[in-house]
Amino acid sequence: MDQDLMKYVDRILISEEEIQAKVKEMGKIITRDYEKEEADLLLVCTLKGGVIFMADIMKEIDLDVEIDFMAVSSYGSSTVSSGDVRIIKDIQESFMGKNILIIEDIIDTGYTLEYLTKNFKDRGAKSVKVAALLNKEGGRANEFHADYVGFEIPNEYVIGYGMDFNQKLRNLPFVAILKERYYK
Ligand code: IMP
Ligand code: MG
To answer: Is 12 inside a domain boundary?
Structure first.
């Protein structure tokens, strides 16, 4: 990795290999859980952070799935959630009567997913579940629980594998802890 990018990295928390193994395992479990379902399965990626996880996990789900993307915002340019969740870009596919699986990079306060799951249910989805690569249990401001979680991580700001700091560093292929001096 370019030394210019590595200067932001305090330490690598989850390697590329560990992520790939976990994504394969999650894909198998999701396939097994939905294979007897009659209703269509729609994978909904939350932009931008979920984009690498989406691209990787959709290949490991051995079912006839549809995909779509949405963008929500709750952070502004800060590293702390404001709790005020807004839909910036809605999904385009119709999802009445379909099973939705939200593909999310990380759950921190839980505000984003609490809002999204309720929103999709209110608008007529048959079911709404969540697959998150990372979970910061210590960051939770509500009772939200994801259905599929890759890794439990400490309550620190992470970058890479889709996750940003000021819109950058999403292209790191691993998950790393951001050096404290960049956000404190
Ligand atoms: P929540 O609403 O607080 O659960 O936060 C959800 C969103 O905030 C995630 O989908 C991420 O896009 C972003 N986020 C939360 N924690 C981090 C982090 O440590 N690094 C980068 N993005 C984060
Ligand atoms: Mg996200």
So the answer is: no
pLDDT grade, residue 75 (50/70/90)?
low
Residue 2 in domain: no
- CA gap 8, 78 in Å, rounded: 17
- Report pLDDT for 79: 65
- Determine if the pTM surpasses 0.85: yes
- C-beta of residue 67 within 8 angstroms of C-beta of residue 131: no
Query: Does residue 107 lie within any of the structural domains?
Result: yes
Residue 133 or 79, more confident = 133
Token couple for 171: 């292209």
Helical ranges in the chain per DSSP H: 3-6, 16-34, 51-57, 111-122
Could you list the active site residues?
A: 108
Q: What is the CATH number of the domain that holds 21?
A: 3.40.50.2020
Q: Which of 62, 63, 44 is nearest to 53 (CA)?
A: 44
Residue 135 belongs to domain spanning:
17-153
Distance 72 CA to ligand 2 centre (A): 8
Q: How far is the CA of 126 from the centre of ligand 1 (A)?
A: 26
Between CA 60 and CA 43 the distance in angstroms is 12
Q: Which ligand is nearest to the CA of 50?
A: 2
d(CA 3, CA 73): 30
